[in-house]
Amino acid sequence: MATQRILDFLATRRPDGPCLVVDLDVVHDNYRAFEKALPDSKIFYAVKANPAPEILKLLANLGSSFDTASVAEIEMALDAGATPDRISFGNTIKKERDVARAFELGVRLFAVDCVEEVEKVARAAPGARVFCRVLTDGAGAEWPLSRKFGCVPAMAVDVLRSAKVLGLDPYGVSFHVGSQQTDLSAWDRALDDARFVFQTLAEEGIVLKMVNMGGGFPTRYLRDVPAAQAYGQAIFTALRKHFGNRLPETIIEPGRGMVGNAGVIKSEVVLVSKKSEDDDVRWVYLDIGKFGGLAETMDEAIRYPLVTKHDGGETAPCVLAGPTCDSADVLYEKTPYPLPISLTIGDEVLIEGTGAYTTTYASVAFNGFEPLRAYVI
Amino acid sequence: MATQRILDFLATRRPDGPCLVVDLDVVHDNYRAFEKALPDSKIFYAVKANPAPEILKLLANLGSSFDTASVAEIEMALDAGATPDRISFGNTIKKERDVARAFELGVRLFAVDCVEEVEKVARAAPGARVFCRVLTDGAGAEWPLSRKFGCVPAMAVDVLRSAKVLGLDPYGVSFHVGSQQTDLSAWDRALDDARFVFQTLAEEGIVLKMVNMGGGFPTRYLRDVPAAQAYGQAIFTALRKHFGNRLPETIIEPGRGMVGNAGVIKSEVVLVSKKSEDDDVRWVYLDIGKFGGLAETMDEAIRYPLVTKHDGGETAPCVLAGPTCDSADVLYEKTPYPLPISLTIGDEVLIEGTGAYTTTYASVAFNGFEPLRAYVI
């Protein structure tokens, strides 16, 4: 997944310290693949996945809309050339003053998942469109989403009804099937919930128009994942099944699926050691860890592919850890990572599939280490 | 633990958004308490706990030395007025070029835990003092340290012997009993390991001089912890027991114990909601979460005391979560947090005991949210 352009950049520029390199050509291809797989859905890129200005600008030019989590992300999308009608304030947890600021900037589409949030939007963004997020069970996802966002479908009906009462435009329903979702039937189950909300409200004369199918589109880490086309087919089939000929507008919010495989982190082996002469497992310490951008290794949830110049040689299991004095800064320990026996101090390690959810997760200065630098090429 | 000075600052300045306020008077008192409890130990403040320049300057003036994790932290300590002989490069995972830079800056004391690291120090910092970190089991600690740092005592003997062979000064042994250690006998067990290394090397004519007893001194969160005096007494007793009348030089490295209780984070309730009408547990969303500075709530390890203006009224269990669109950004869920029933959107929540390991953990810009601001008063 390290493209030739990325390899050439690293070979020529030889940046010191850990860094992320993102290949815009891959982002471009991913955008086209989503367009092709789901030609009737609007693409709202999840800015939080990687808000690099070059990425936002490319996607704005390609016609993408943007799913944002904060006023700062709205401003980034605007700076990249997106008009406010292409921006959704997709965070269900918003300060009322942030809703007001978004409204002032022209944003008219807001996520909610409870009556309390509807009330804020009604006060601070009168007349705006709202969509209600529905809880899904997250089964099949590598990183299920807990119950933090959304409400049960029956409550979503109440939420959207209250939006109508308060003068807002009850626009639709959203869900998120969980990150790195590889079970295609997850969309089917969620769309059945969406249909329930549409149908119940239709009986009261409230006609919803949109289904926001969220993200969850996986990027390729160590295992192959169904390609975008397969996702598109499964989703289209489920839409037909639940909505028949009256298909709603649909939105998708790829983040990881748009940029994950476009980025590679270059790191360096700082130390290889054992804790005891009797240990079978070596400890390999990199110059990047959980607090330097690899937060998604939490609970060893995401297992990035690693590339070294010794690949192909004999391997042995390693515990992989970051460079800080924090004992929690260990990447893979429960399931040790097989790495070449000849791997040694000073060697370069490429961490693939790291275009999403890395740079912005990096800590400001933990242990004095600077945040992850990024080059978008 | 919110001192009157902190409360006055917040009342007068009314900073917008989440922020940490640290009271230097508390840091001052903590330093004096450590001095009094362990009058024969040198205090090396663990800079990573909170590297705010005002804190480093205060401690430098009080006579503190500094335990550092990186070249940047060494430079911060120097900027605060510490001379290089009061600085230890305490990270066992160092790039050789960083060792060289530290040596250039005058640092002569380095942590190691394997022969490979000794070789780097020998090349880049010839003649320097090294101490070898020994693994402890971490029993009794709220946040045990895994096996990331240190080696077994038998291997520490080899490591320090190799330091001697390579022209370094094998200076001593270090250990860390685990963070928030409340079992006073943990120091006793670790000091027994230290004695083993001292004694074994003494038989070969290598005379170690120093025991670095690390950190682990707890700060008061929800439970009372033995006061500094009790720690001092227990440690002194263990030293006598294992080293008799030939007490080594000793170093302690308090971080959390020095600044944890000196800081309070001011946050705001963004949303209070339920996921279903039938839920017993409310979700309370704050404007700060795991990626905004409260990383130590990972696995609900540390349970910070929360203060609201409704305290004293009836409470009910809440799931407490942060403001980002990340489902992992939940602070307390497995063990819900009892909070006043009357707590509502817009209320201020003070998060106490947050002077350590908060600001520097904050992510650069996750979801577009700015890092945690800090005021040191």
From TrEMBL, chains A, B:
The keyword Lyase applies. Its cofactor is pyridoxal 5'-phosphate. SUPFAM superfamilies: Alanine racemase C-terminal domain-like (SSF50621), PLP-binding barrel (SSF51419). Pathway: Amine and polyamine biosynthesis; putrescine biosynthesis via L-ornithine pathway; putrescine from L-ornithine: step 1/1. The keyword Lyase applies. Keywords: Lyase, Pyridoxal phosphate. InterPro entries: Ala_racemase/Decarboxylase_C, De-COase2_CS, De-COase2_N, De-COase2_pyr-phos_BS, Orn/DAP/Arg_de-COase, Orn_de-COase, PLP-binding_barrel. It catalyses: L-ornithine + H(+) = putrescine + CO2. It holds the Pfam family Orn_Arg_deC_N. One of its GO terms (molecular function) is lyase activity. Residues 27-259 form the Orn/DAP/Arg decarboxylase 2 N-terminal domain. Its EC number is 4.1.1.17. It is an enzyme of class 4 (lyase). PANTHER family: ARGININE/DIAMINOPIMELATE/ORNITHINE DECARBOXYLASE, ORNITHINE DECARBOXYLASE 1-RELATED. Belongs to the Orn/Lys/Arg decarboxylase class-II family. This is ornithine decarboxylase.
